Amino acid sequence: MEMSLHHAATDIPEADWTLLDHGDDPFASRAFLGTAEKVGAGGTAMGWQARHLALRDGDLLLGLLPLYLRNHSFGDFSRDWNWSSAWQRAGLDYYPKLVSGIPYTPSPGPRLLVRQGVERDAVAAALIDAALEVTRRLGASSWQCLFVKEEDRARLAAAGLLMRRGVQFHWFNRAYRDFDDFLAGFTADKRKKLKRERRAVSESGLRLETRHGDEIDASLWHVIHRQYRDTFARYGNHPAFPVEFFIEASALLARRLVVFVAFKDETPVASAICYRDAHTLFGRHWGASIEMPGLHFELCYYQGIEYCIRHDLRSFEPGAQGEHKLARGSSRYPPGRHSGSLTPACAERSPTSSSVKTPPCRTTKPKQQPACRSS
């Protein structure tokens, strides 16, 4: 197998992406990553230097690892600020580091992408070995593989990488017939409170609509983006995605992009931007130009649950944080254990003092060391 590094997701032809076992994940896609890189959200100016790692047998793409060289941690949700300061105290440079993840998207998904129909174990292992070698070659402090699925997590752990666990709150569809069937599992008091929240919105006169990416024109995207941008800024956060991202990504993702929109008469006043695959709805961004009790939960949570029930989706990931979601029917993910992110430190660095110990590393090289080229 020959290894190559690519400076843009669009360097990989769409025909090759479609043959990878990404499960139609909307984020680990050429459409999402390529558009984010093109408009700057996932580009060099924002600290995302694409080094996507491909393994080929001749012209045949066997495996792909989304990979970014980073000089800071903003937007990757690695929560590794203490690691950075620890390296500095040890006389080492923490940056640059390598990250396999999706810009500004803390959603568990496929990271070790393997061509369908080939031996997955062998290619996934080769991707891990190649990533470790690239880490050494580029002089990065570490390779972080973030928000991985359980199958990939087990492979990475077996390869000797360090595990770090987190927790998220996901909603799971228990074959509910409708929203009332879902509410039947609540206590009477919680059921009453939730219905009161929804009633406040339904009696407000707002009209709620569900729009997919191929049903949203540029003028509506400008309004939705202004709500997203202003809401982020109001809370001191950076709205990373420009309006051009949503206009272009919605055309490419089509039905895999879902937006719940609240209208006052004909004016959009609030929105929740989501993505989906065949099994899961992913809540990502919220924005509003009005203040209304219950509107945030209605658009960001209850509308998503109804959508999942209506479209027979297995789960809803309404965002990375918030224990308040437990009271509204979510469960810890995965159930009974803290997981959801993985951060291996695996690169060798030379300490400035012989008394300083570097993080544990896996140094075994692949049996067939691939040649590395950049494109």
Question: What report would you give on this structure?
Answer:
- The protein has 2 domains: 201 residues, Gcn5-related N-acetyltransferase (GNAT) (Aminopeptidase, 3-Layer(aba) Sandwich), CATH 3.40.630.30; 165 residues, Aminopeptidase, CATH 3.40.630.30.
- The C terminus is likely disordered.
- The longest helix has 19 residues.
- The protein is globular.
- Helix 2 runs antiparallel to helix 9 and helix 7 crosses helix 10.
- A 7-stranded mixed beta sheet has the order 10-11-12-13-14-9-15, with helices on both faces. The chain has a 5-stranded mixed beta sheet with strand order 7-4-3-1-16, with helices on one face. The protein has a 4-stranded mixed beta sheet with strand order 2-5-6-8, covered by helices on one side.
- The two termini are 17 Å apart.
- Strand 3 and strand 4 form a beta hairpin.
- It is built from 10 helices and 16 strands.
- The chain is an alpha+beta fold and 375 residues long.
Please state the structural category.
alpha+beta
Overall average pLDDT: 86
Ends distance:
17 Å
| The level-1 CATH class of the largest domain | Alpha Beta
Spatial shape: globular
CATH superfamily of the largest domain: Gcn5-related N-acetyltransferase (GNAT)
Total domains: 2
CATH level-3 fold name of the largest domain: Aminopeptidase
Order of helices and strands: EHHEEEEHEEHEHEHHEHHEEEHEEE
Beta-strand content estimate: 15-25%
Helix segment count? 10
Instruction: Give unreliable regions as ranges.
Output: 335-375
Would you report the number of β strands?
A: 16
Radius of gyration: 22 Å
- Binned, the helix content reads 25-40%
Spatial order of strands in the largest sheet: 10-11-12-13-14-9-15
CATH architecture of the largest domain: 3-Layer(aba) Sandwich
Largest sheet geometry: 7 strands, mixed
